[in-house]
Amino acid sequence: MTVFWHRRDLRLDDNRGLERALERSEDPIVPLFVLDPTVLEHASPVRVACLLEAVGALRERYRDLGSDLVIRRGKASAVVPGVAADVGSERVVWNRDYSGLAADRDRAVVAALEDDDVTWESVHDAICHEPGSITPNEGTHYQVFSYFWKKWRDRDKRDPVAPPEADLLATVGTDGDEIGGVETGTLPSRTELGFESPEASLPTVTPAAARTRLETFCDGPIYQYADVRDLPAAGGTSRLSIHLAWGTIGVRDVWAATERAADRAGDGQRESVTAFQRQLAWREFYAHVLAFNPEIVTEDFDPYPDEIPWRDDTEALEAWKHGRTGFPIVDAGMRQLREEAWMHNRVRMLVASFLTKHLLLDWRHGYDWFRRHLADHDTANDVGGWQWAASTGTDAQPYFRVFNPISQCQEYDPDGEYVRRYVPELEDVPTDAIHDWPELEQADRDRLAPDYPDPIVDHAAGRTRAIEAFERARGE
Ligand SMILES: Cc1cc2nc3c(=O)[nH]c(=O)nc-3n(C[C@H](O)[C@H](O)[C@H](O)COP(=O)(O)OP(=O)(O)OC[C@H]3O[C@@H](n4cnc5c(N)ncnc54)[C@H](O)[C@@H]3O)c2cc1C
């Protein structure tokens, strides 16, 4: 028997590790999922709800094929070798995860398997081109996205992998709760795991939902993507991030669908497909950066000679978290996060800039909040996005280019539609006043929307304070 250990690849289709497990195995596969307490320690109600739904769907898919998913709770370094021993497996296969936490866990699992003389294999699956395969001359990872993109774009991509045939999977025993001689185990509920119900309404996180989303997007919206991707009210992005984060869709499937869309593209539409593919490359760029620099989850990627003098201001941090900064587009974004466990990319950049520059609060506070509230949290993208905004990352926003949340609101939400959707206090406020809110006279703010907060910082003063602080950190 071979055990296939699912982690952030909660699907059967386009799963390279699963294919590899089947390829070299003469016996059927026993699929396994482990609820590891170390991973749960870093979880949140949103993430646990997503995880349980995706694992439940994965199990159903195995059951439809006459097999099942073995589910266990416990430390992976004990559970994986334990299940391997119980099913008499000499080989365990999984897909690689590039975060430092996962690497620590995997090292412990490998040590335990090797102690038991069980062979193991980890397979590249989560991205098209694995870390180390697209490198500058000195051979680690690119630090400038545009160079990475050119190589990534021109490199041949693998085709999607077919799902396994039913007869290659271990079948369920006659009493229905055992495969390969081990109990299948139950999937605990959210409350059994000690998590509250998420306050956000979550999208469905299953392979079927992922496929529908991909097909719908590639049937039409992908051709307008370049024009509307920066407009948060338009809803013109794919919303595939949650599926890529949980692995309810394989990246090769996504790539292949975009290539088919490119083949069907009419005049001027090809560029829009390329603009979308470029975003997939950002995801891989950040995965490479994290794989080579696991410490960037807590440390600045590109530290300044002196410490950045981050402020300590709980009140401002709380106002930011709860969408009560008095900057309408920032507040709309932070409220969208709480309501949908997702936020539009342009607004993620804005709220991250606002926290780290206008409020001069440490990016780690923002990362921590996003990690808990985003259903699509992905360590590489999340930390990459935060360090970009904080001007501490790879190919980051220069410290002196501070986003102006007033002009950004005018430019990207010209009709105030996005703001009104998430900030009901401003529903009846004229669009110009929404855009100018932080700079209106106090009397006008009191008259137009007495329940909506005044700005917690002066835009120009906040910008100057940030630039001066970063200059001090640079030793200027
Ligand atoms: C501070 C900050 C934090 C972020 N945290 C995350 C995160 O935890 N998880 C996450 O998947 N993305 C993160 N992003 C990137 C981006 O905002 C989301 O990927 C995007 O908004 C997801 O929506 P979508 O699937 O509709 O994107 P689309 O525009 O449809 O893009 C398609 C896919 O490309 C990838 N992608 C798009 N933009 C980026 C980007 N800037 N960086 C890396 N990959 C990208 C995603 O996988 C996305 O699903 C973050 C960005 C910032 C500025």
Please describe what this structure looks like:
The record marks 310, 363, 386 as: Electron transfer via tryptophanyl radical. FAD binds at residues 225, 237-241, 276, 279-286, 376-378. It comes from Natrarchaeobaculum aegyptiacum. Keywords: Chromophore, FAD, Flavoprotein, Lyase. Residues 160-180 are annotated as: Disordered. It is a single chain. This protein is of the alpha/beta class and 476 residues long. It has 3 domains: 1-126, Rossmann fold, CATH 3.40.50; 127-158 and 207-285, Serine Threonine Protein Phosphatase 5, Tetratricopeptide repeat; 314-473, DNA Cyclobutane Dipyrimidine Photolyase, subunit A, domain 3 (Orthogonal Bundle), CATH 1.10.579.10. 48% of the residues lie in helices and 6% in strands. It contains 21 helices and 7 strands. It has helices at 16-23, 37-41, 45-64, 76-87, 100-115, 145-154, 207-219, 225-228, 241-246, 251-264, 270-292, 314-321, 328-340, 345-358, 363-373, 379-389, 405-412, 417-422, 431-436, 442-448, 459-473, and strands at 2-6, 29-35, 70-73, 91-95, 119-123, 178-179, 182-183. A 5-stranded parallel sheet has the order 3-2-1-4-5, with helices on both faces. A two-stranded antiparallel ribbon has the order 6-7. Bound molecules: flavin-adenine dinucleotide. Flavin-adenine dinucleotide binds at residues 229, 237-241, 244-245, 279-280, 282-283, 286, 345, 348-349, 352, 370, 374, 376-378, 381-382, 385-386, 389.
